[in-house]
Design brief:
- The complex is a heterotrimer of chains A (322), B (287) and C (349).
- By secondary structure, chain A is α/β, with parallel strands linked by helices.
- Chain A has helices spanning 2-15, 39-43, 55-67, 86-93, 96-99, 129-133, 146-158, 207-221, 239-249, 264-275, 299-305, 309-320, and strands at residues 19-23, 48-50, 71-75, 109-114, 139-141, 163-168, 192-195, 200-204, 226-230, 233-235, 252-259, 285-289.
- Chain A has two domains: 2-171, Thiamin diphosphate (ThDP)-binding fold, Pyr/PP domains (Rossmann fold); 192-320, Rossmann fold, CATH 3.40.50.
- In chain A, the strands form two sheets. In chain A, strands 2-1-3-4-6-5-10 form a seven-stranded mixed beta sheet, with helices on both faces. Chain A has a five-stranded mixed beta sheet with strand order 7-9-8-11-12, sandwiched between helices.
- The model of chain A has no long low-confidence stretch (mean pLDDT 95).
- The model of chain C has no long low-confidence stretch (mean pLDDT 94).
- The chains are: A alpha/beta (322), B alpha/beta (287), C alpha/beta (349).
């Protein structure tokens, strides 16, 4: 998936000279994950800018550059370190259009690798989507496949509003697939049904989409048909696809890595219970990280934290029997 | 950053700036009255900043250079093209057609430091695009204690950006810098490799020269605070550019303009409640 | 900042600094090997910074002054009494790791008894903590000093500015020590800050600033001692820049390809250990065979510790829920190998 991210950035920088990349180690090093490899040599320092280690400053400067006609792609090296920039993102980027009555806009993308299962410890593993999906004026996009990463990132760069683009670190090199060439855009908003099913609806994003597909495969062997919906974008959220799926299956399970309490799964469960209550024949189930601060560095406790296909399949089996 | 020196602006320019100063002061007084009598939004104190702000504006090119400023900067905004009606529409919470993007005035709702990082970004975009623009960012003394101020100015310094940060310290205010800070804010500029100067904001000549880039620091004189409008008036009068009658007319003119703006703002339609949903995103497809 | 008639460096101190540096280097080397063998997940090294770390830590009162470090400060930790065994337990993420129970990455120390604050991976997050500790010391009437080490990357963070400003305003007993290796991972100093020396910033906070060759043990110790005494005596904070080479890549996960061969060679050539060894030998404080024995013993000690650490179990999975709020039983101290029975770091004799 990392190649897809790099291709999207490269193509957009070639297409539009207003697009530039800024962040820690994005230039000479090409990013700690290689997302911007080769861009420094190709586009020069002004458009591939190594910034000081100052997250609030990175986002603040990117906002200013957007106000003055550029389209910055700001990289936060790890989502865990985005918090110093919370004020700039929430109070400024997401609110500038609103507070200026539509006069100003802040077209920018903030890319941040997130997620665990990679031995990142407490500060290189976090899921942060729930904090930001709560904020009106900000779009939150999380691709799970290379093709989506490519098409969604291009859409994000062309979007007139600020987009937080979260890339799961574990799928950078886990999933490989052909990426459509050129101007293939994936619109921000619509979810995609990755596997059709009739007994249970399963909602996920990022790495968890893949784990849910594996769990669904296990349940198929037991004769349970699971539909897996990859939400791809939490803000805007494709409520229609969620509700259509639940109305068909009558059972819903939401899977995320983020802590369970106040995680985005709670919002999906609320939407389902509010708008598809009559269709339900079981509780809306969440499989999520426990309420501890991110995941410990050691193997045993990292495994304890992470939802995985086995844990998800067990929850699905219980729900199927309900 | 080379710009024409602003040492002796023509009398007509000085007079126009003086009008703006008078207008800012009159708006402030009117807002004070509105706050007391009609419980309108709390008024803002701008007295004392007028000379500094119009001097800064005189060095800038409206519509080309950028100004990132807060509520304190009323005289600056007026000088850069905002009208009394724009001010009053906001005060009366009415829909305003004013587009600050067209005049490159970025308004920040509160002082502090976060807009300083944004101003550095504006200046970086200028540099990347190879355009000839200057960005002026204003903050009061609270701004310089914040991390964003540090991150913004450090970035501007590292890249030598066309950015001016104006720190407006309220003399004798409730938060004198000396109480919070051992060194003068200008000393901080050394840490960012920037040129810095402390100036008497009440003195138009000093402020104007500073923004023209020609004033050596040793010229700074410690002066007791004097009303910058009085000082400007004396300066104009001494140069024969302003008679008492003409001054009276300027005062009346600003009073009339403000009265008319208040009437128009009162009559302007209030926004619909549901319009609160507008402009969250570029389109309203969401939600 | 140079006071006349600087008191002499205590007898034997340079040799003790060297001994800790040799031990630190041995631990560092072993962790690097473990990462290359895939047995340690993520390793950050101190190589090149050791003398700056140890000689500055030597100027504080161990267990009385507080230490606020970052992940490169292995030399500070060992100088203050952290054992190589503990560092290896942490590097191998074992449950017995007394610093974080195997929860944090390598070299994220934490020791209330040694007054070492828990290290965060978030750069510069600890700098306000040091200032707060200094403020608390003043409020409580203690004469302790807060020692705060950080890298050049951290100097760009807003939190650093906010913390230094407050320290300057209240003239708090803090010593800020910037280990400047001129690289924030890959970002060179010129893109990080417009000034050449981090210590140039000190004037903005009305504190003394000094830039010191961080490979010169005597210079580091002398400058730090003056800053500590100033802080303890009510003279307020200081900012010291310790100029050091970064000999390794940023971490075990970094390829260092953004540096040229010449740049990497220059960093290696500036290695502070051979320099101090040379000084000691020239002054007759260290014999060549003594040095060889010291290096050999350090390696043996670390390898023995590694064997013990590798034999320790992983943490229990459900313990992941522990210590989130008050009320859980404390982990308790680590059982140290017998060789550490009288271990106190170095500076107590």
């Amino acid at each position: 998936m990392i190649e897809a991210v790099r291709a999207a950035i490269t193509e957009e920088m070639e297409r539009d000279e207003r697009v530039l990349v800024m962040g820690e180690d994005v230039g000479r090093k090409g990013g700690v994950f290689g997302a911007t490899e080769g861009l420094y040599a190709r586009f020069g320092e002004a458009r591939v800018l190594d910034t000081p280690l100052a997250e609030s400053g990175i986002v603040g400067v990117a906002i200013g550059a957007a106000l003055n006609g550029l389209i910055p792609i700001a990289e936060i090296q790890f989502a865990d370190f985005i918090h110093p920039a919370f004020d700039q993102i929430v109070s400024e980027a997401a609110r500038t259009r609103y507070r200026s009555n539509g006069d100003w806009s802040v077209p920018m993308v903030i890319r941040a690798p997130f997620g665990g299962g990679v031995h990142g410890g407490l500060y290189h593993s976090q899921s942060i989507e729930a904090f930001y999906a709560h904020v009106p004026g900000l779009k939150v996009v999380i691709p799970s496949t290379p093709a989506d990463a490519h098409g969604l990132l291009k859409s994000a760069i062309r979007d007139p509003d600020p987009v937080l683009f979260l890339e799961h670190k574990k799928i950078y090199r886990l999933v490989a697939e052909e990426v459509p060439d050129g101007d293939h855009l994936v619109p921000i908003g619509p979810a995609v049904v990755r596997r059709e099913g009739t007994n249970i609806s399963c909602f996920a994003w990022g790495l968890m989409t893949h784990y849910c597909l594996q769990a669904a495969e296990q349940l198929a062997a037991d004769g349970v048909s699971v539909e897996v919906v990859d939400l791809r974008s939490l803000a805007p959220l494709d409520r229609d696809t969620i509700l259509q799926s639940v109305r068909k299956t009558g059972k819903a399970i939401v899977v995320h890595e983020d802590n369970i309490t106040g995680g985005f799964g709670a919002e999906i469960a609320a939407i389902i219970s509010e708008h598809a209550f009559d269709s339900l024949d079981g509780p809306v189930v969440r499989v999520a990280g426990p309420d501890i601060p991110a995941m410990p560095f050691n193997n045993a406790q990292e495994d304890f934290f992470m939802p995985n296909p086995t844990k998800i399949a067990e929850a699905m089996k219980k729900l199927a029997a309900y | 950053m080379a710009r024409a020196p602003v040492i002796n602006p023509p009398a007509s320019t000085l007079l126009a700036l003086y009008r703006t100063m008078v207008m800012a002061r009159a708006i402030e007084r009117r807002l004070w009255v509105l706050e007391r009598l009609e419980r309108m939004a709390p008024s803002i104190r701008v007295t004392g900043f007028e000379a500094l702000q119009v001097a800064a504006a005189a060095a800038l090119r409206p519509g080309r250079d950028w100004v990132v400023s807060g509520p304190l900067d009323l005289a600056l905004r007026l000088a850069m093209g905002m009208s009394p009606l724009d001010v009053m529409l906001a005060v009366f919470e009415k829909a305003s057609p004013y587009a600050s993007s067209a005049s490159r005035l970025v308004n920040t709702p509160a002082m502090g430091g976060r807009h300083v990082a944004q101003a550095a970004g504006i200046a970086y975009a200028t540099q990347v695009s190879g355009r000839d623009e200057v960005t002026l960012v204003c903050t009061d003394e609270r701004g310089i204690y914040t991390g964003d101020w540090h991150e913004g100015l450090n970035f501007a310094g590292a890249h030598g950006l066309p950015l001016i940060c104006l720190v407006e310290e309220i003399a004798g205010g409730s938060r004198p810098i000396a109480r919070h800070l051992e060194a003068s804010p200008a000393t901080r500029a050394e840490g960012y490799g920037l040129a810095a100067e402390t100036l008497d904001g009440g003195d138009f000549g000093a402020a104007s020269a500073a923004f023209g880039g020609l004033r050596p620091p040793e010229e700074l004189e410690a002066q007791a605070w004097q009303d910058p409008i009085d000082r400007m008036r004396r300066r104009l009068a001494a140069a024969g550019g302003l008679s008492d009658d003409a001054d009276d007319e300027i005062q009346r003119e600003s009073a009339r303009a403000i009265a008319a703006a208040v009437v128009e703002a009162r009559q302007a339609p209030s926004p619909e409640g549901a319009q609160a949903l507008d402009n969250v995103f570029s389109s309203d497809l969401v939600g | 900042m140079s006071e006349p008639a600087e008191p002499p460096i205590p007898d034997g101190l340079l040799l003790r600094i060297y001994r800790v540096a040799v031990l630190t280097r041995a631990v560092d080397h072993q962790l690097w090997l473990l990462s290359r063998q895939g047995r340690a997940g993520f390793v950050l090294t101190a190589r090149g910074h050791e003398i700056a770390q140890i000689a500055s830590a030597a100027a504080m009162r161990r267990g009385h002054d507080s230490a606020w470090c970052y992940y490169r400060d292995m030399g500070v930790g060992i100088a203050l009494g952290v054992t190589p065994y503990e560092i290896l337990l942490g590097g191998l993420a074992r449950g017995a790791d007394p610093h974080s129970g195997g929860r944090q990455l390598t070299m994220h120390l934490s020791s209330p008894s040694l007054r070492i604050g828990s290290i965060s991976s978030a750069i510069a997050a600890h700098i306000p903590h040091a200032v707060g500790a200094a403020y608390a010391a003043r409020v409580r009437g203690e004469d302790s000093v807060a020692m705060c080490w950080f890298g050049d990357g951290a100097a760009s963070e807003g939190a650093t500015h906010e913390a230094m400003n407050l320290a300057g305003v209240h003239r708090l007993p803090v010593v800020f020590l910037c280990e400047n290796n001129r690289l924030a991972i890959s970002v060179p100093l010129a893109l990080q800050m417009p000034v050449e020396r981090v210590s140039d910033r000190a004037s903005a906070y009305a504190m003394p600033g000094e830039s010191v060759d961080g490979t010169d043990a005597e210079a580091v110790f002398t400058a730090t001692r003056a800053a500590v005494e100033r802080a303890r005596g009510g003279g307020g904070p200081s900012l010291l820049e310790l100029r050091v080479p970064r000999i390794t890549p940023h971490s075990s996960q970094d390829d260092d390809a953004y540096r040229s061969d010449e740049q990497r060679a220059a960093a290696a050539a500036a290695d502070p250990l051979p320099r101090l060894r040379q000084t000691l030998i020239e002054r007759g404080m260290l014999a060549v065979d003594e040095d060889e024995r010291m290096v050999r013993e350090a390696r043996e000690q670390v390898v023995a510790d590694e064997d013990l650490a590798l034999a320790m179990p992983e943490p229990l999975p459900e313990r992941a829920r522990r210590w989130l709020y008050a009320g859980d039983p404390p982990q308790g101290g680590v059982t140290l190998p017998a060789r550490y029975a009288n271990w106190t770091g170095v500076f107590d004799g």
